[in-house]
Amino acid sequence: MNYNPNMERLLSLLFIIPLIFGWGCQSDQDGFSTTPEGLTYMFHQQNKAGIGVLVGDIVTADVIFRTADTVFFVSSRDLTVPYQFEILEPKFPGDLYDAFLLMAVGDSATFIIDGDSLFLLDFEIQEYPDFIDLTTDVFMDAKLHDVMPREVFEQEKETYKERVDRLKADLKEREESDIRSYIEQNNIRVNPTESGLYYIEFERGDGPAVEPGKSVKVDYTAMFINGEIFETTKQDIAVKNDIFDSLMRYQPFQYLHGDSITFAGWNEGLSYMKQGGHGLLVVPSDLAYGEEGVEGYIPPFTPLIYEVEILEVK
Q1: In degrees to the nearest 10, what's the CA dihedral of 72, 78, 82, 83?
Q2: How far apart are CA 209 and CA 216, in angstroms?
Q3: pLDDT tens-digit readout, 214-249
Q4: What is the pTM of this model?
Q5: Are strands 33-34 and 84-86 parallel, antiparallel or unpaired?
Q6: Are 91 and 140 within one domain?
Q7: Is 188 a domain residue?
Q8: HEC-encoded secondary structure of 97-132
């Protein structure tokens, strides 16, 4: 359970979740209504008999935050870590809490919220990302799955924590055998590095080496160990594997090697490569997203597979 009344978990994810699928996708205000508080909204599904939301309740919901052209946060009802948070007193008229106070269990809706106030007051972020300015509208697509009074939540929290801890323990225990099975089934003959990373070279590059401080442009496809693709820079692969998102810009990923936005397994794996190289990384969870994973996206203790092609190093 990811209960966080200050939404700190949301803030920690704002800038690491890539552009993935969204729904709703209205880019103008046609068909929207406005409350006296100034909140603009459109219901896609409304359950008149559903349980309503009160301040102090804990809600379970799917939430997408986006501007007209950028999806910057996606939560989903992952089976291992449902997305939950407390409904606080609204911090400004028409904020995200006002939005949920309009909803009942079973409802889905799109809300238009002032981006400047949302980041400053709800998210408590002083430095905005590039796609937010004083005039930006933020669209919040929300589907409400459950509402729990705080006192009931407190009673169930410890039981839930024990269940999540057991699940994490099971995933941790299974990870090593999952990696071993993948290595055997794919007839991989290389040994892991000291850290536990596997680097399988398909093609040796003949250009500059990937080194700390160098700008690297790379195409990649990311998979779970069962082969399910969850992210790629290539549009044809996204289409073929039914993960295509029309809002996603399918283009090579460019970054500064060794910086803090990439995880340890990525940095180590690509450090064995040169421009023109093509290879596969088998990344244990402790070199990726670890015991927490990424909520609604990557479960805890999940090894990841990355097929990478180094396009440019400079």
Answers
A1: 10
A2: 10
A3: 999 999 999 999 999 999 999 999 999 999 988 788
A4: 0.54
A5: unpaired
A6: yes
A7: yes
A8: HHHHHCCECCCEEEEEEEHHHHHHHHCCCCCCCCCC
